[in-house]
Amino acid sequence: MRKSNQIIILLMVLYSFSTFAQVPMTISEQNVKKNSSQHRLLNFSTSSSIQFSETFVENLGAYFCENNITTGDFDNDGYIDILLNVTTKGIITFWKSKLLLLRNNGKNIFSTIQIDSTSGYGYKVFAADFNNDGKLDFVACSDIGMSVYLNNGNSTFTKIWSDTGWGCGGLFCADINLDGSIDIVRGFQGTSGGYVKTFLNDGNGHFTLNWTSQLYGSAYGTISEVIVSRITSDSYPDIVAVEIYSGNVIVLKNNGTNSNFVETWRHNFGARVFGLSRIFFKSDSLASILLNVGHSTTYLFEALGDSLNEHWQSINYGSTSFNVGSGDFDGDILPDAFVGTLNGPMYIFHNVNRDSLSLIWSDTSLNGGYSGFVADINKDSLSDLIVGEGKSTADYFNTTTLTSVNNSMNQKMPNGFWLSQNYPNPFNPTTIINYSIPQTSFVTIKVYDVLGHEITTLVNGEKPAGNYEVKFSVETRRGESLPSGIYFYSLQAGSYYAVKKLVVLK
Hints:
The protein contains one helix and 37 strands. With 506 residues, the protein is mostly beta strands. The longest helix has 14 residues, at 3-16. The radius of gyration is 22 Å and the shape is globular. The model is unreliable at 1-48, 390-398 and 407-411 (pLDDT under 50).
């Protein structure tokens, strides 16, 4: 065996005892706002280095919940669509939730299709492929239950599974038992406190209750937010949960054997906690957590063993901070933070060398901070915003899409070499690897199996200084498909060398 391969294998073995890949998903959460208004997709300029332009505005004739928006290519035409779970007022005082698909024609012009309408407030919605057929399905929650809808492939969906449960709790989907199928984690409201339930997927989109947590908070407590990500250093995804009224944030560690969870950390803020989001702030695969606390502050907590450690605290907004999310708004590959507030102002914080967050953009022209979602609508590698714009004097919400435009920070040169953890991970069939080089260098990126055998070369040539991304597929050049398992990828640029682990999961 060549010496270079021996070195690679040694690095792989050493690395395999460190971080495991994250299990990322999209996020959609929160409650109903009774001031109404519209729904938009925007592009507008500001005096900061971040710019947006308004590309789509539509009045949907419905109320918006706090973050009942998700995105994805639901019709497999290559364009990113928008899925909404909104609320309309029924006869007398009754409310009905309405599921709306906004199909993208590729020019950020959307046509609206109603999928379903049910009783109750429309709350969270989350997209995932539940039956592994390559089409994007979704689960939607109201204040009286949740339902799973499978994609028929012709912009129609069939409801195949439902679960009742009172309250507008959190919702997140991820493969919590690492069997290759996407499971559901949901927060609930209870008369004696809030609680968390996990539902395991049989691979066909039908779910079985697997685990129920203890009660948190007091009477009528609500687990208003849940996210799933690796907080601890083992290979299994954990749960972070928020009980809104008591102000408790809880880490629930996945025991890995039967996908049960045990509490390892709890912090009480002494004020309501409204927003919760993952942000892969550091270069490792452990998630950091964004939280909106009380009436004016956002916190960034980093994963630390079985717990979370406060790393950063925002400015005082002077308005209740409801909505949080993360994305690359300035084109430097590093994840930035988005915050929306109750009375409308929105903020973006720039990730400063993975060390802190700095305010670089705000907008007060839209009253859309209550319901916002971060996604790359036009697939230009810059994160866009979809907001439910609320005005207390209006009757409905506007759906507004804010599309990022060539921000000046996109041209910012990196100040060091960097190889990212691939995303998504585990993955099938494709994943993205980002890397940065601060000077012109000959760059080589290769993928190896656990024995050190080279699978493919992704990059092999001279590159000027800049930020790059490369796609890796399980389909090899010989038409073969890589089996499930652990693989490694390496970056060689001048004297800089780095290796990371990726996981193919079919």
